[in-house]
Amino acid sequence: MTADPRAAADRRTFIPLDPSLAPPGTRAFRDAGGIPADRWHADQNGETLVPTHCCFCGVQCGMYLRVDHGGKVFGVEPRNHDINRMRLCPKGINAYQQVNHPDRLTAPLMRRSRDEEFREVSWEEALDFTVSEIKRIQQTYGNDAFGLLGGASLFSEKTYLVGKFARVALKSRHVDYNGRLCMVSAAGANKLAFGIDRAGNPFSDILLTDCLLIAGSNVGECFPVMTQYVWGARDRGATLIVVDPRETAIARTADIHVALRPGTDSAFFTSVLHVVIEEGLTDENFLADHATGWEELKAKAAEYPPSRAAAICGVPAEQIVQVARAFARAPKAMAWHARGIEHHSQGVENCLSVINLCTATGHIGRPGAGYGTITGQGNGQGGREHGQKSDLLPGGRSIMNEEHRRQICEIWGIEESELPPAGTSMMEMVWQMQRREIRGLIGICNNPFVSLPNYRVVKEGYDATEFHAQFDFFLSETAANAHVVFPVTTWAEDEGVMANAEARVVKHNKAQDPPPGVRTDTWVICELARRLGAGDKFHFPDSRSVFDELRIASAGTVNDYYGITYERLEETGGIAWPCPATDHPGTPRLFEDGKTYHPDGRIHLQVVEWHPPMDPYDDEHPMSLTTGRTVAHFLSGNQTRRLGALVEQTPRPWAEIHPSHGFRNGEPVRVVTRRGSEVFPALVTEAIRPDTVFVPYHWPVPTAANALTIDALDPRSKIPEYKVCACRIEHAERIDEVPAPPVAPGHVAYPETQVSRTDPLPPTAPQGRGTSERS
């Protein structure tokens, strides 16, 4: 063994672990870079471990990427970061495989018409064509005829650039992002109630609670590593309540599982509040000192006795009483929720009804007592904080607020008259594309052909555009419909920050150089800005330079990142915002002083009125279709549908239905909505309500759940109503075939990852109790 001459330089990027987390006797072996004691390494190995975080969900597990002597990522190891404590889920274990995957795009693709085939071109030709089309469309139809759609899996530095590029270089009001499909109902509710948009408590508080309520979150599959916190609470004796139409893996371990009818969440939670009030279980002192709107809310809750809510929700009235007593009587109780209650035309009301319950019982702002929202994408929290959302500027500022506009214009060096007004939401932009109000579009880190509802409308909207460019490292279904595709880096080929579901900002480190011909999103955005005449506002050679401006742009706001630096993140492993100064420890738990971020410092309780879902039931469509994730895949599946172990684990979607419908496991079942029909293999299980069908949404047409869902929106958050639409099921002859992912010209779908797509049967037991054997 010999001393490693690179060790001193390498240590700059390694995050020292908290020694209290290391096993006894291993403190000399605790460098987060995985360097052995005294920085020696084995000559015959020649590998480096680069500390970073998973690219997928909002848990943001710590991991090491294994890098060989040639500088290529070839494996992964879990890291003893205090978020995940050495645990990774199936997606995290396989994430590294996308970095050097044979499907990677390595040259720009271009065509001047969708009737042509793609051809590989130089960066110069692709950029020139894109800029000429932007100028042509805007000079002909106006600046707002060109739009930009970003993504919540981008580093925060890049989300900042997306918003700035749209408003300063494109000078268009039309910018939004795919977090519109994820967290905006929770964001809207949080801002209304608390004046701040983030979870109130860190994950670690779950370990301290006496009662844990999880609503609309399939934690075991969507956020698997978060399960350790749930189990830790259970080990302490905490009561677990799960509210979900399906008996998910986490629901099977619950003391109380409320299998309510999809689309009835706010009626349920308001009825729970009714019982809390009637039985004298409210915390009147807390309400008097810290809340407004209590009398109005009490009056509304009186209209939702358990008998009424039981009829609406399809659950026993006694269960509503049971939940109320368990939650309100607990010394410390917490509520966490996710997409299951947010993906609704009443998503904001659903979230508010949970906040109302936590507030009325005084379970806010204490260790083990509080409220949290679980972000779905890796940067679902950070992705909406710094300006790519249509109504927000960096730091969570409102684009409609004159003072906020003035502040940002001063930082950006533009006149306030140059800053466009608020734009529209992602789905509304598609409708505008249909109407040819938006004629050109750039998409970054999104795949609407799979992820947006009502595929027919989405396809019509994109087809109506005169020009469309997409950034991606794989050719997604949406990119395959574009005129230009820019090949960009994966998360392992650049550095930057993300904010996880706790609002803890963590640092991702670069593990390898990108393949020849690939550029960072930052470089492409800045180069487009330069060619559009705004280069002086986009002089950012790297992520660090963008982050320096982001810190300044967020200073003094609710979403204050000013005190967060790359160096501090490397030293600490993560800092929760707001963090206003470099000697500030961050804010892992909100409201400890009893004050919110409203000017009066109080929680603003909101009256909630339940209304039926937007897609009405009738004799032709008597059942509810609901959608969600499965453990092996992520969002539109553009990444995970190419990774062999994940495809083998879950090669295709299925229709989860109750045994009462008479299907056998694996038989073709046609799911019919007012948007169309598709045929899936039946997964027959007692783990779902008889009136409900579940289909996971990670696949494209003709097996796309989102070809069936409705494009109705919450009027406040503009989130689509993915979680409930009217449907029926029928026997069919043949199951619809799963298509292979798109690939660049001259390539074929990587066969090792695609062989199992032809498997006609649904997954086995992990998906639900009572599932038949595949044999």
Automatic annotation (TrEMBL):
PROSITE patterns per the UniProt record, alphabetical: 4FE4S_MOW_BIS_MGD (PS51669), MOLYBDOPTERIN_PROK_1 (PS00551)
SUPFAM superfamilies reported for this sequence: ADC-like, Formate dehydrogenase/DMSO reductase, domains 1-3
Alphabetical list of InterPro entries matching this protein: Asp_de-COase-like_dom_sf, MoPterin_dinucl-bd_dom, Mopterin_OxRdtase, Mopterin_OxRdtase_4Fe-4S_dom, MopterinOxRdtase_cofactor_BS, Prok_molybdopt-oxidoreductase
UniProtKB keywords: 4Fe-4S, Iron, Iron-sulfur, Metal-binding
Region described as Disordered: spans on this chain: 1-20, 738-775
Domain 4Fe-4S Mo/W bis-MGD-type: 47-103
Gene3D superfamilies, alphabetized: 2.40.40.20, 3.40.50.740, ADC-like domains, Dimethylsulfoxide Reductase, domain 2
Entry annotated with the keyword Ribonucleoprotein: no
Keyword 4Fe-4S recorded: yes
Designated name of the protein: Assimilatory nitrate reductase catalytic subunit
Organism: Streptomyces badius
